[in-house]
Amino acid sequence: MGEVLNSALADERAWTAETIDSADAWYTSIIGDCMDELDNFLRSRNGDPEATTEIRIGDTGFPNCRKTLAPVLADLRTGRGFDILDRLPMERYTADEAQVMYWVIGQILGLPFEQDIKGSLLYDVKDTGQDVKEGARFSVTNAESSFHTDGAFNPDVPDMVGLLCLQTAKSGGESQLISGVALHNEILSNHMDVLENLYGTFCLDRRGQFLEGESPVTETPIFHWDGQELWFRYLHYYIQVGHELIDRPLTSQQRAAMNAMEELIHQKKFQIEFSLEQGQMMFTNNRWILHNRTAFEDHQDVASRRHYVRLWLSMRN
Q1: Averaged over 78-88, what is the pLDDT?
Q2: Phi and psi of 292, rounded to 5°?
Q3: CB 8, CB 181: distance < 8 Å
Q4: What are the φ/ψ torsions at residue 144 (nearest 5 degrees)?
Q5: 183: Cβ–Cβ under 8 A, 6 or more apart, which residues?
Q6: Which residues contact residue 3 at a Cβ distance below 8 angstroms, ignoring those fewer than 6 apart?
Q7: Which residue, 198, 159, 186, is CA-closest to 284?
Q8: SS3 for 39?
């Protein structure tokens, strides 16, 4: 077990539903000079068959977008931990064109990060009819995902998560966020008896995302303090399945710690909720922001069904 953070972090990261800034401040408009740059880049490709994920923009292109996104990156690193970009005008672009612009924006914010053992860099988040209980990831079902950090079961995890909304569901599918820093502060104040256990080792089911000869679980703490930043890895169901998978039952202390965590996570005072609209992009800090997608009902028409595109990113030094 590593060092335990024994003092509260009292800055912008430790927001609750009552203390977070106004919802209007969560949105950053990309309409204007940034959108013009993206549109010009798209038109300059003129049907270039190069795959979207093979596009590399370098460190100096898109100066207007970099200026627009600088405050977003600051929010992600040391602010509230998330931002919503508003928006790609989908009435003017195809889904493929939108993903090109999204890919460019992602590279301005960070470095693309592989999302599965196939090396996917852009990942379709939509209901495929699969079942979590049969080994599917929540991202390909219409079930509520529960509050979690992305890639929690991976040996390495992304620093940031992006979501581009291409189509919305018929109903449901709202986005919910929680500050893991606020949760840690609450546990430190009122549940000190379980805090140390959350810095101990838990086993997360890797959902088949491992190579031959590798362990089917990742062993990791839920909280990790590196002396400067608090890291959080969590998905309750994957932890339960992970311990069952290798026949290592959760201890009574681990169960008590998980129960305390779940009780806090389900308190509305820690949660914010909103719906992404078509063309909007959300980016979150995956080190300490937990996110959830509520269950949803989809459209009968296949072309109209809920479709998000996920992007994982590493932060540049």
Answers
A1: 97
A2: -140, 145
A3: no
A4: -60, 135
A5: 261, 264, 265, 270, 290
A6: 225, 227
A7: 159
A8: helix
pTM > 0.70:
yes
The span from the first CA to the last CA of the chain, in angstroms, equals 26
Alpha helices in 110-247 (DSSP H): 180-190, 192-198, 236-245
- What pLDDT is attached to residue 14? 97
d(CA 64, CA 33): 6
- Which amino acid would we find at residue 281? M
Rounded (10°) angle between helices 63-78 and 95-109 = 60
8/225 Cα distance (integer angstroms): 12
**DSSP class per residue in 57-119:** -TTTS-HHHHHHHHHHHHHHHHSSSEEEEE---TTTS-HHHHHHHHHHHHHHHSEE---STT-
Q: Tokens representing 138?
A: 């929540």
Query: Rounded to the nearest 5°, which phi and psi values hold at 115?
Result: -105, -5
Tokens of 211: 């190579």
Q: Do the Cβ atoms of 307 and 157 come closer than 8 Å?
A: no
Sign of the alpha-carbon torsion through 46, 50, 52, 57: negative
Distances from the Cα of 311 to the Cα of 38, 130, 150, 271, angstroms? 18, 21, 11, 23
**Longest Cα separation, the chain:** 61
Phi and psi, residue 135, nearest 5°: 105, 0
Which residue intervals of the chain are DSSP H helices? 33-45, 63-78, 95-109, 180-190, 192-198, 236-245, 252-265
Q: Are strands 281-285 and 122-125 parallel, antiparallel or unpaired?
A: unpaired
Among 38-42, 131-135, 139-143, the range with the most confident prediction by mean pLDDT is 38-42
DSSP structural state of residue 223: E
Across the range 224-238, mean pLDDT stands at 95
Question: For residue 189, what are the contacts with CB-CB under 8 A and spacing of at least 6?
Answer: 8
CA proximity to 168, closest of 274, 42, 56: 274
